[in-house]
Every structure is written in C-alpha cells, then in structure tokens.
Specification:
Na+/H+ antiporter like fold, about 325 residues, 14 helices, single chain, globular
C-alpha cells in the first residue's frame, strides 16, 4: 500500500470518527437540528471561503496555477455527463417530478468543499488544495446555474408534474446568482498566487487562517448530524440512489480516468488524481437546503447525501487504488 492510500485511509478514518461525533451529538440532543443548520451556514458562508483564501497563496507557483486551470473545463465536462446520466436513471426508475429533479442534480454536484478539499490537503498538501479549488469553481457555477434551474423548473428535463401546486420559486436567471463566497475567495487567492504575494506572517492573515482550519473537522460533524435525522425505516424509498452510487462514485470516475490517461498522458499527477477524486466525492451536503429552497424533494436529497457519503468510504479507496495504475 503506497503512501497516498495510507493518507486517504487515515483521512477517511477521521471522517468516520467526526461523523459518529456529529451523529451522537444530535441523537443525544446535546445540540439541536437548528444548531447544526446554523453551523452549516457559518461553514459555507465564512469558514470555507476563508480556508480557500488563506491557503491558495502558498499552494504553488504561477506556473502551477496555469497548469491547473484546465481542471475547470474538465470538471464541467464530467459533471455534465453525470447530470445526463442522472436524468436518464431518473427516467428509468420512473421517479416523480420533484424527486427526479433532486436525483438528477444530486448525481452531478459533489461535496468537494466539505470532503474533497480536506482529502486534497491530506494526500497532496497545498497543491491538492489548489487542484480542488479549480474543481470548486466549476462545481459551484454548475450548481447555481444548471442545478438551480432544474430545481426550480426553469430548465425542463421532461418529467411530468404530479402536483398542482407551485412548489418552487422561479426567479429569472442572473449572473449574480453565480457569485458566491467560495468563488470570490478562489479568485482572490489565485490572484495572490499569480502575483506571488503570500501574506503569511501577518497577524490578521494568520488569525483568519487559524479560524478557517476548523474546516478540516466541522463539515463531517455536520454530516453526522444529518445522518442522525435520516429516516432509515423508509430506506426502500431511496433505492434509486444506488444508481448514483454506481454512476457517480464508481463508473464515471473510472471511465473518465481511463480516457483522460489515454488522451493526456502527461497530465500532472496531483491534478489528475484530484480531478478523479473530485468526481468520485459524494453528493453535496447542502443539497437538502437547496432542494427545500427551490421546490425539489428535500427528503430524497438528504437520502442521496446519506447513501453516497456512507458508500464513498468503500468506493473512494477503490477508485484511488485503480487510478494509481493508470
């Protein structure tokens, strides 16, 4: 077993411990569901953006940044493929409209911020964070454009509505909805990297970096809390999520890796592996909040996140092991 696999297993082991902590905290009511929602908002809106901003300036050189830029296009391509497969599998399983929209989006958008970035930091250090950040750009832009459009029915994926009420909001598309804290932080961090400006050693900067370091732990505790509220008694309803496990966590990452290794044999190892790991990461943990806000099936979205997160503890090491031979 090589060093990268050992680091991956170590990180996944830490994830499991943190998930169990979050599960226990909510199950024994030491904190409430509302508390976890507040912590999730704090993480998404402040801590993760700070982590990206304070880490990227030391993530490599200007050349490393330029070499990593193609990851944005490759990520978008992979997620469009995943979205298409999600729509097809929703049709095959004859999911109702609200559930089908959640299924399609959850098949494409990944939990790169909560899982991918910590894994990248553990396995590859700062270069892994740089590669994961490029993935974040495409992931967030796809979520808040195509994903949001599918959730709100602005984009019709051909499913017949089974309800007469308007369960979703349909605001007109605006470029403003693509702007979020993560994207701004990545752009600012990359600008500092390109200009070779690293503010490390500055009191304010180091304080922000210290605060943001909680991103290595808090996300999985929050996911553990999500598991504590999951309705395991109604597990059969989430059987179609097994198709997400097959396509998103196994099939597409391996096929994409095989094709990419053939078309671009000289691709930097860190970029190649972080791209495939990013594709194989579970469904984004904010899927429930997004589905609730935009009228899709929030309960099913929670099931997608739960099932794929648990399954990834097995599938992710398998994918990383296989691509190690490409």
């Amino acid at each position: 077993m090589n060093e990268q696999m050992i680091l991956l297993f170590s990180q996944l082991g830490q994830f499991l411990v943190m998930i169990l902590i979050g599960f226990a905290v909510l199950r024994f009511r030491w904190l409430s569901k509302e508390d976890f929602t507040s912590y999730s908002q704090l993480l998404v809106r402040l801590l993760l953006p700070l982590f990206l901003l304070t880490t990227l300036p030391a993530a490599g050189t200007r050349t490393d940044l330029l070499v990593s830029l193609p990851l944005i296009a490759l990520t978008a391509l992979a997620q469009i493929i995943l979205l298409t497969l999600g729509i097809i599998s929703a049709r095959l399983t004859r999911l109702p409209d609200r559930t089908a929209r959640a299924h399609a989006v959850c098949n494409a958008i990944t939990n790169i911020g909560f899982m991918g970035i910590p894994i990248g930091a553990s396995m590859f250090g700062a270069p892994g964070i740089l590669a994961a950040s490029m993935f974040t750009v495409a992931n967030d832009m796809l979520m808040w454009s195509v994903g949001r459009g599918i959730f709100t029915r602005q984009i019709n994926i051909g499913f017949v509505r089974t309800d007469d009420s308007d369960t979703g909001v349909k605001p007109r598309f605006s470029l403003k909805q693509l702007i979020n804290a993560n994207l701004i932080s990545v752009l600012l961090g990359c600008a500092l990297l390109a200009l070779e400006i690293n503010p490390a050693g500055n009191l304010v900067w180091d304080t922000l970096a210290g605060i943001s370091s909680i991103c290595r732990y808090l996300p999985m505790i929050i996911i553990g809390g999500m598991l504590a509220t999951f309705d395991f008694k109604n597990l059969r309803r989430f059987t179609p999520t097994l198709l997400i496990v097959l396509t998103k966590l196994v099939m597409v990452p391996l096929v994409f890796a095989l094709v990419l290794s053939w078309l671009w044999p000289g691709m930097p190892d860190v970029n190649f592996k972080m791209l495939i790991i990013g594709i194989a990461i579970p469904t984004f943990s904010t899927s429930v909040a997004a589905a609730t806000a935009y009228g899709a099936d929030a309960q099913y979205a929670a099931g997608c996140t739960t099932v794929t997160t648990l399954a990834s503890m097995v599938t992710l090491p398998l994918v990383v092991y296989v691509i190690g031979y490409l």
